[in-house]
Amino acid sequence: MIEYRGLKVALLGAGSVGSQVARLLLEHADELASRAGASLELIGIAVRDVDAPRDVDLPKELYTTDAEQLILSADIVIELIGGIEPARSHILQAINAGADIVTANKALLATHGPELFDAAEQVGAQLYYEAAVAAAIPIIRPLRESLAGDRINRVLGIVNGSTNYMLDRMDRFGDTMEDAAAVASELGYLEADPTLDVEGYDAAQKATILASLAFHTTVPVEAVHREGITGITKAQVDLARSEGYVIKLLAIAERIVDETTGEEGLSARVYPALIGREHPLAAVHGGNNAVFVEAENAGSLMFYGAGAGGKETASAVLGDLVSAARRHVAGGPGVGESTHADLPVLEIGRVTTRYQVTLEVADEPGVLAAVAGILSDGGVSVETFQQSVASSDGTLSTATLVIGTHRALESALAATVEQLASNAHVERVVSVLRVEGAE
Ligand code: NDP
Ligand code: HSE
């Protein structure tokens, strides 16, 4: 029998994810030891209430409310409390006590990542966070390690499962936004504060992490342009379907060149966008996540699977735990985050993409010429154009124009839409959506 070195593991949090991590760690101790080259002893679980009922039956004596004491005895600390404090302080304490850290805490990494990475680098510790983006899907390690020799140009992610579930219901079952939200809430898909999901905050936190890794640059969460899905209507979803698109909430990190200065930078943004039904991301249904990576040499890669769930997320956490244990066995300092590129994060106005603009206009002579003139003056080139007469009161009709543009600068498009909105022929700008996933 092989005698393994013993490593002490402290778990902070025993909620949906933490309880599954503890269960799997205890159930698969031998297998994990063989893979890690060290036995992993769970020395305690810090919680708020040691007597709270739990989904998983774990030895009572493991629970403690004294996280600080627990951390002092650990070689590896797994933080699954969530939020900023006390998670941040506990992680800093653990780093300074010489432990490696495993966390799934996207909110903390998006807001305090540089502070934690710096602290770890200073003492040679390592911080692992595979579960922080898209839970079970391996995406952090592929970006951080497997693709470290390539140059990534774009990352398009469906990284929020609950909003994907809602948009998917609207697309496939004809739900309204309200109906879809009610079902998502009933199934427990939404965060305790649903604004985090539907207003895109959760996706923006994940976009920060993805953009930082993909472009070797520290990207603050405040620099991520964020729009949620609350403005999306059933009519937009239906029109998208009829035009061969589906609406997805996308987290996008992209290498771009500022057209005015020639400066290379990156864009990080979250918004609902149209994506062609033939694109692999269009086939991501329900609460699943997927990340589509475009790299200069590797080409297009897609990472797909469960973006939430206790045991699914625990799988990624345990993978990190094994990596941390192997590192302890091998010795040597941790490897810091690569931020050497230090690209500027360009504002949304500097981005170019394609758009679909839907207008209601008076069905009368001169309208098309006026609309075409405004688009042309704004530097927005039309790729597709459709007109349908929507209604008629006997004298005047209203026509709907659906205009698909070639790639245009966001600031130019926004100014053009403003011009369209104030034109006398235009009754209403019904919808402006970006079209992503195509050149
Ligand atoms: P839960 O809310 O289910 O669990 C949180 C746990 O932390 C509870 O056990 C709670 O204790 C404990 N806790 C809270 N405050 C303290 C404190 N001050 N001191 C000690 N313990 C405390 O969270 P999840 O398991 O869902 O999430 C954990 C992390 O994983 C978060 O960062 C989340 O973003 C991330 N994540 C979660 C996913 C999921 O599907 N759930 C997916 C991907 C990432 P008590 O039980 O006593 O109240
Ligand atoms: N609220 C998140 C989601 C949970 O819907 O994807 C996983 O991070």
UniProtKB/TrEMBL annotation:
Its EC number is 1.1.1.3. It comes from the Bacteria. SUPFAM superfamilies: ACT-like (SSF55021), Glyceraldehyde-3-phosphate dehydrogenase-like, C-terminal domain (SSF55347), NAD(P)-binding Rossmann-fold domains (SSF51735). Belongs to the homoserine dehydrogenase family. NADPH binds at residue 106. Keywords: Amino-acid biosynthesis, Methionine biosynthesis, NADP, Oxidoreductase, Sodium, Threonine biosynthesis. Transmembrane segments: none annotated. NADP(+) binds at residues 12-19. GO terms for molecular function: homoserine dehydrogenase activity; NADP binding. This is Homoserine dehydrogenase. Pathway: Amino-acid biosynthesis; L-threonine biosynthesis; L-threonine from L-aspartate: step 3/5; Amino-acid biosynthesis; L-methionine biosynthesis via de novo pathway; L-homoserine from L-aspartate: step 3/3. L-homoserine binds at residue 191. One of its GO terms (biological process) is methionine biosynthetic process. Gene3D superfamilies: 3.30.70.260, Dihydrodipicolinate Reductase, domain 2, NAD(P)-binding Rossmann-like Domain. The active site is at residue 206. Its cofactor is a metal cation.
